Amino acid sequence: MTNGSCLCGAVTYEVAGPYQWMTHCHCSMCRKHHGSLYGTTVGVEKKNFRWLQGEDAIVHYRSSPAFERPFCGH
């Protein structure tokens, strides 16, 4: 089990493997969002992800017709 949170701590979650996929994205939005050369994401089955607190603080930004970027609104 891996625990995670947003930067301010309002949103927390836990995720468990096995991971279904992993990718590194080098697009300009991912580089800007992560402050690095790429952003890494992993995917798991929905049953292996659980919000611990702050799910209502999540807001979404439609960055392209095919992709929405969720983040903490605080």
State the helicity in percent bands.
under 10%
Task: Provide the number of structural domains.
Answer: 1
User: Based on helices, strands and strand pairing, what is the structural class?
Assistant: mainly beta
What distance separates the N and C termini? Answer: 26 Å
CATH class category name:
Mainly Beta
CATH architecture type: Beta Complex
Tertiary shape: globular
Rounded to an integer in angstroms, the radius of gyration calculated over CA atoms is 13 Å
Description:
It is a single chain. With 74 residues, the chain is mainly beta. It has a single domain (2-72), classed as Metal Binding Protein, Guanine Nucleotide Exchange Factor, Chain A (Beta Complex), CATH 2.170.150. It contains one helix and seven strands; from the N terminus they run βββαββββ. It has one helix spanning 28-34; strands spanning 2-5, 12-15, 21-25, 39-43, 49-53, 58-64, 67-72. The strands form three sheets. The protein has a three-stranded antiparallel sheet, with no helix packed on it. A hairpin with a 6-residue loop joins strand 1 (2-5) and strand 2 (12-15). The chain is globular and about 30 Å long. The model has no long low-confidence stretch (mean pLDDT 94).
